[in-house]
TrEMBL record:
It holds the Pfam family MarR_2. It comes from Haladaptatus pallidirubidus. InterPro entries: HTH_MarR-typ (IPR000835), WH-like_DNA-bd_sf (IPR036388), WH_DNA-bd_sf (IPR036390). This is Helix-turn-helix domain-containing protein. One of its GO terms (molecular function) is DNA-binding transcription factor activity. Residues 19-75 form the HTH marR-type domain. SUPFAM superfamilies: Winged helix' DNA-binding domain.
């Protein structure tokens, strides 16, 4: 029974392991359980905007994050972990 509970977390980590360091850093920043915009992620991670965009794309391709429109500003997307 405990293996079922740990399998999704293990699967998440396994898929994350194959990604570049920038994507791993963005995933770590998103562990705060607070949805963040691309700009906020760039500020928190100290990565350039272009690198953050690339990391977000890779994380979305692996279905490790989800995005939705921000409630504060509907023009922006916010990102959070999909686990």
């Amino acid at each position: 029974m405990s293996t079922t509970a740990t399998k999704p977390a293990g699967d998440f980590r396994e898929r994350l392991r194959e990604l570049p360091p920038s994507a791993k850093l963005i995933a770590k920043v998103l562990e705060t359980d607070e949805p963040l915009t691309q700009g906020e992620l760039a500020d928190e991670s100290l990565l350039p905007d272009r690198t953050v965009r690339y990391a977000l794309t890779r994380l979305e391709e692996q279905d490790l994050i989800v995005s939705r429109h921000s409630f504060r500003d509907a023009r922006k997307q916010v990102y959070l972990l999909n686990n």
